[in-house]
Write a structure and sequence with these properties.
The chain is of the alpha/beta class. The chain has helices at 2-10, 14-21, 24-30, 39-51, 68-88, 107-124, 138-152, 167-177, 199-216, 227-239, 257-265, 280-290, 292-308; strands at residues 55-60, 92-96, 128-130, 156-161, 181-184, 221-223, 248-252, 270-276.
Length: 310
C-alpha cells in the first residue's frame, strides 16, 4: 500500500517527470508499457499486435490540460489518429480522456471538441471509448457520455471502475441505455467514502458488475490481468453458453503477454490498450502502482541494464 501511494504521488510530480523523461535508461524501460512518443511508433505496435490476431485501442497520452490550445492540439491529434487507422487498415479503435479534451476548462466547449472527433469517427466507422478518470470527473463523464450516446450510438462507449461504490448504479443505467461498457478496477487514489479500499472488495464488485454486463450488456470489455477474475469470467461464459463474439478481454500494452496469447489461442477476442505520446510518465507510474509485479519487472530490467554496462 505504501509503494502504491508513493507511485501515485510520483505520477503527479512534475520534477520526477522531467528527470525520468530525460533519462535514456528509464525511457527504454518505459518502452515495455508505452508504444513510443509518436503516432508512427504506435501504428507499428498495432501492426505487430495484429500479426498475432490481437486488436488494439490507441490512446494518446495526456490529461488534465490547463490551456484551450492544449485541448485543441489533443483533439486534432486524435482525429489524425483516426485518419491513420483508416488509411492503414489496422484493427484498432481509439480511447480518449475528457480532461484532455478540456473537461476541466469548460464542459460545453469540451463537448464540442468530443462531438467533432466523434463525427469524424462515425464517418470512418471507428469506435471511440471515453476513458474514466478520477472520481472528481465521474459524474461529468457519464453525463456527457449519455448526451453523446443518444447522438452517436455505438460509435462511442465508456468505462466503469469497479472500485467506485456508485458503479453498480452506473452499470444498471448504462445497460438500460444499451451502452458499450469497459469494466476495469480503477487506478486512482480515492477516499474510502467513494471507493472500496480492500482488494477483495474491489474484486467482489468487479465480479458482480462483470456478470451483469455479460448477461445483459452490449459487447462488454473485460479489462483485467487478474487471473482469478478472468477464470471467473470464463466459467460464467461457459455456464451461460455465451459466444466469444459477445464480449472481449482487454489488457494493457506490455502486461501479461502470456495471458493475452493463451486467451487468443482459446478462441477469445483480445484487445490491447496501446498508449503513446510524450506524456507517458503519469501513465507509467499508475501502471506500476496497479500491479507490484510491474515494479519487480522494472527493477530487474534496470539491474540487467546496469550489469551490461559494467
Amino acid at each position: 500500500m505504501v509503494v502504491r501511494s508513493a507511485l501515485l504521488w510520483l505520477s503527479e510530480h512534475q520534477g520526477a517527470f522531467d528527470f525520468v523523461r530525460g533519462n535514456p535508461l528509464t525511457q527504454r524501460m518505459a518502452s515495455r508499457f508505452v508504444a513510443g512518443e509518436t503516432l508512427d511508433s504506435a501504428i507499428d505496435a498495432v501492426r505487430r499486435l495484429g500479426k498475432t490476431g490481437t486488436r488494439a485501442s490507441l490512446d494518446l497520452l495526456g490529461e488534465s490540460v490547463t490551456e484551450r490550445e492544449e485541448a485543441v492540439r489533443a483533439r486534432d491529434e486524435v482525429i489524425d489518429t483516426l485518419d491513420r487507422i483508416a488509411e492503414t487498415g489496422v484493427d484498432a479503435n481509439v480511447s480518449v480522456k475528457l480532461t484532455q479534451m478540456g473537461l476541466d476548462l469548460d464542459y460545453d466547449w469540451c463537448a464540442r471538441n468530443v462531438r467533432e472527433l466523434l463525427t469524424h469517427a462515425k464517418q470512418l466507422g471507428i469506435f471511440v471509448r471515453l476513458d474514466m478518470e478520477s472520481s472528481h470527473h465521474t459524474e461529468r463523464t457519464l453525463r456527457l457520455f449519455q448526451e453523446l450516446h443518444g447522438e452517436f450510438g455505438d460509435t462511442t462507449g465508456v468505462v466503469v471502475q469497479s472500485y467506485l461504490r456508485q458503479s453498480a448504479d452506473d452499470v444498471a443505467k448504462l445497460i438500460a441505455m444499451g451502452a458499450r461498457v469497459r469494466l476495469c478496477k480503477g487506478a486512482y487514489a480515492e477516499p474510502a467514502e467513494i471507493a472500496f479500499q480492500r482488494r477483495h472488495e474491489v474484486s467482489a464488485s468487479f465480479v458482480e458488475l462483470l456478470e451483469q454486463l455479460l448477461t445483459d450488456g452490449n459487447y462488454p470489455a473485460i479489462a483485467t490481468h487478474d487471473d482469478p477474475l478472468i477464470e471467473h469470467a470464463l466459467r460464467f461464459v461457459r455456464t451461460r453458453n455465451l459466444s466469444p463474439d459477445q464480449f472481449e478481454f482487454q489488457m494493457l500494452y506490455g502486461v501479461r503477454r502470456d495471458l493475452q496469447g493463451k486467451l487468443r489461442r482459446d478462441g477469445f477476442n483480445v484487445r490491447v490498450y496501446v498508449p503513446f505520446g510524450t506524456h507517458w510518465y503519469p501513465y507509467l507510474m499508475r501502471r506500476l502502482a496497479e500491479r507490484p509485479a510491474n515494479v519487480a519487472f522494472m527493477a530487474m530490467s534496470l539491474l540487467k541494464e546496469g550489469l551490461l554496462r559494467l
